[in-house]
Amino acid sequence: MIQSLIHKLKHLVVTLRFSILFIFVTLFLVSALSIILATSIRFMDTLTFTSLALMRYSSAAVQQELNVAIRPAELESQFSAHLMEEGVLKDNEEELIPYTYYLLKNLPLALAVYWGDEHGDFIYAEKAKDGSIVTEIYTRRTLPATHIILYRNPTGQIIRSVSSDDLSFDPRRRPWYVKAKKAKRPIWTDVYLFEVLNQPGITSAAPVFNKQGQFIGAFGIDISLDYLSQFITHQKISPHGFSFIISGNENLIAYPKIKPFINTPLSPAHPVSIHRVPIPVIKKSFALYEKTSREELTIKQDGEDYLVAYEPVPDLAEYGWHIGVVIPKKDFTEALQKVNLITIIISVSVLTLCIILVSGLITRIVKPIKLLVQETDQIKHFDLDHDIPIQSRIKEVIVLRNAIQSMKKGLKSFQKYVPKILVRQLIESGEDIRAGGVRRELVVLFSDIENFTTIAEIMDPNELMTQLCDYLEDLSQIIIIEKGTIDKYIGDSIMAFWGAPLPVDMPCHQAAHAALRCQKKLDELNAQWAQQGKPALRTRIGIHKGEAVVGNLGSSERLNYTALGDTINMASRLENINKLYKTRIMVSETVYEEIKDAFVLRLVDCLAVKGKMRSSCVYELLSDSKRDIPFDVDTYRITFEKGFASYQHRQWDEAIAHFKNCLAIYPADTLAPIFIERCEHYKADPPSSDWHGISKMNT
């Protein structure tokens, strides 16, 4: 009887609903019971482990944030010294005054930036309480010695200059200068009293040596203890946790602006010992830390557990600086205890709810599957009599797989004759795709590889096709991601457009982004190909916006979704015009007006294209951010436009001067030399009287 039962169970075929419901209920029960049991057994260990882990993370985070905050001061002082040694930054007021001002402005934690030399000269920029920056200049290398103070408003504009008779300050006697000179390397000072500001702090200083190795001066950057305290105050460790900094002589260096620290004064003359801080847990933990040298401690105070960590500050280790972090353990465990209780409640609730929901959902799932089987039987157009072996006990899966396999086999056969997308459309709609088109406003992009014919002649055909396919694949993916439609590949050229078959928001912007990304990707590909010994490919791109006819073109045997019209021809001409001006991305005036506020472009020329009644200007698309431009693009554009205006008014010498200024701004420019050559030509052979600075394009 048992064997008979086993035999029946082996050959049992169950319904899909029963199978899914049984699996889900079993999984829910096992998962929920396992979670509840494991959480209850391991909860206390988890609390301790998690608390210590979070403590380590919090302590490391504070140390990392402090390092990130003070490290720029060290790096900038060293970098400034390097600039001085390399001659990039000169030892004169004209360069040092603005340099120290802008350096201080961009260092949030710094209080002052300054330069002192062996002559006793001193250029000092300090932050005022209102956010402005005051500069003091002591000059002793020329007599009589002077002391000038420059006052600025918060925007950086100098509003007042005062000459002072106070020449008592000498940088050569200050601790930062003496130590940097003696150490002959970048240094940090211990806490000392700033003479100018009369407040305690630390200094990062870097010495400067001339070509003969002689010490000539030092750069210094001040960080006040008050700034460090502000930094510590803003470190949100936990709801009730806080951090502080102590020195090697066990004095409090920086602390959060919270009670009971708020009335603790900081002064090198009257340092506050860590043992006098009015927080018992700090005294107790630090005493234990000194005794055991354990960086992570658990302290019980007034019936509450505290997690305490002490870690050295790497940059100031020579002075014995440490970061202390104190966090009540309940800040971590309270939430975990709630989570444990909530987990149990949720597990039981979810278990009950899921069983109810899954039962209802499975009923809803099975019904559409049955309908899907019926539907696939109706839409299939191929032979379905072929038997497929199925290893399954679920009736619905057997039926569904038969139908889907039959449909896939038919589709695969049909795809040998008709494109995949067209097959999908025919099956979904049941209608033929007819020839025809509509007028749409499109943004059209043309790309073409420079000197591709020459490259093709020297390369192996297989290698050429592989490299070209990689090129087309990567650029096409970028165009598709930017919501463009690939019209066709014409050899090595790509034609794409935006605005059809579906409308696109801001199509000019999308096309511009696509063009820039294509050029950037091509630079990456060229770097890879160079390593592989393959030739680099340089592509030219033209973009134009206008009306075109778009739709299905072809015969009854084959159709192609494409666009026709003068807009397409204009985009192709723009791509071709790149050759004349040695540019990479040329856009029409229509596109320029759409994207000029969001991208960086420059005027190239005003052209009269063959077949067009009206001339228009063309522009080169450079970037989507001025930060990526290796020259002062704003100054360049102003200078070039002045030169172009003079060029159009036949003022040849004035135009040449402006274009030469363009070369001074951007020595690698290819555009300015073209116009200089034109101006020289027109000086020798003036154009006709009807010439107005418009270049005629006959292509």
TrEMBL record:
Q: Name one GO molecular function term.
A: adenylate cyclase activity
Q: Where in the cell is it found?
A: Cell membrane
Q: Which UniProt keywords apply?
A: Cell membrane, Membrane, Transmembrane, Transmembrane helix
Write down what this protein is called: Adenylate cyclase
- Can you give the residue ranges of the HAMP domain? 363-416
Annotated SMART domains: CYCc (SM00044)
Q: Which Gene3D superfamilies match?
A: 6.10.340.10, Nucleotide cyclase, PAS domain
Chain ranges of the Guanylate cyclase domain: 443-575
The scientific name of the source species is: Aquicella lusitana
Q: Name one GO cellular component term.
A: plasma membrane
User: What GO biological process term is on the record, naming one?
Assistant: intracellular signal transduction
Q: Where are the transmembrane segments?
A: 20-41, 339-362
